[in-house]
Amino acid sequence: MGRRKVAIKRIEDKSSRQVTFSKRRNGLIKKAKELSVLCDVDVAVVVFSSSGKLYDFSSTNSLTGVLQRYNSHVETEEKQSNYARYMTIGELVQTLESDIEEPDQLSVTDLVHLEQQIGSALLETRSRKNCLLMESIAHLHEKEKMLEEEKRHLEEQISGIKKDSEEVNEMGVGVDFTSLATSVVGTQQQAAATLNLL
Amino acid sequence: MGRRKVAIKRIEDKSSRQVTFSKRRNGLIKKAKELSVLCDVDVAVVVFSSSGKLYDFSSTNSLTGVLQRYNSHVETEEKQSNYARYMTIGELVQTLESDIEEPDQLSVTDLVHLEQQIGSALLETRSRKNCLLMESIAHLHEKEKMLEEEKRHLEEQISGIKKDSEEVNEMGVGVDFTSLATSVVGTQQQAAATLNLL
DNA sequence: ACCCCTATGTATAAATG
DNA sequence: TCATTTATACATAGGGG
């Protein structure tokens, strides 16, 4: 759509790919907005640039929330966790690639084997995912407990301080002020009285 | 984009809204595909029609995962689909119970059907599980933030109290005490001096 | 990278079948 | 409701600053 027709396949030139990305991404999001408004429907768009940056649009809050939650969570955990998983998946990909070169020549036996491999990769992936999720939850629970403990401690500190300063107010400063004032006045009167007597 | 310019606001006429929805939805998804291919990025689009039907596009599996999660999340919050989903699982249980009574008499066709039912129940269960886990994590994160905020607040309170009491000691009570004490002593000395002079 | 411009390809509103 | 047509608005490729 422009000076020339462009075939829909990966743009090889990096900079024009980037330019096109920017333009079309904005276009897509604009269209999504229009669709949601014109037709009164919920629309969400998520784009991950190749550098991993996220661009998204959502016509409702909850979707944004969900997707953002997902993103922040996955981004946080992926870096640590994925290495092991990629090894397994990497192996699977190798198997798949070598098998897929001649997909028509795979016998039923081969396919059964392939099915088993994929199945076990799936199980491993899933179980690793579950592990990480459960760990994450356990970790968060611990943190929560710790924070709650800290909070309790701080509150105790505060109530301690308050009690101290109340004691000071009731038996310390206030009393001293009045008694001192009295004694000052009294002393002056005494002095005056003494002078008068003399 | 057509015979006329159309303002971007809800189309009131139901049938033309429906027509526009159909056209623009396809357009949006086409654009999303093009973007993902041309720029070699991951794109996902989700559209919920007002009648609750889902249309989606995703360039990758992982984003499909996001969408499934999102999907199940929304299902959790929307009563209709929730109800429908439990029915499905209930139905599955019924099917299983009646089928398992005579497991040997099941034909391949029956088994394929059963496999599909079990498979979809599995997907639903898994997606619901994922949804709950993600929600749980998000909830814990929020709680963590809240607790941290409270902690910060309490710490501020404490440091505020400490500073106050320091100020009091330096410029308040202490000073008054000494000046009062001095004036008392001074007055008494004056009085004494007066007495001595007289 | 970003904006502006313009020629051109696309998407689509409305009409029609 | 859906397909086709057509006129028009919009999106955008390529180019220059």
UniProtKB/TrEMBL annotation, chains A, B:
MADS-box domain sequence ranges: 1-61
Gene3D superfamilies: Transcription factor, MADS-box
Origin: domain of life: Eukaryota
Location in the cell: Nucleus
GO BP: positive regulation of transcription by RNA polymerase II
Keywords linked to the UniProt accession: Coiled coil, DNA-binding, Nucleus, Transcription, Transcription regulation
Coiled coil regions in record: 137-171
Domain K-box: 63-164
Pfam families in alphabetical order: K-box, SRF-TF
GO MF, one example: DNA-binding transcription factor activity
InterPro entries: MADS-box/MEF2_TF, MEF2-like_N, TF_Kbox, TF_MADSbox, TF_MADSbox_sf
Leader sequence segment: none
GO cellular component: nucleus
Role noted for this protein: Probable transcription factor.
PANTHER family according to UniProt: SERUM RESPONSE FACTOR HOMOLOG
Protein name in UniProt: MBP3
Source organism of this protein record: Ipomoea batatas
Organism lineage: Eukaryota, Viridiplantae, Streptophyta, Embryophyta, Tracheophyta
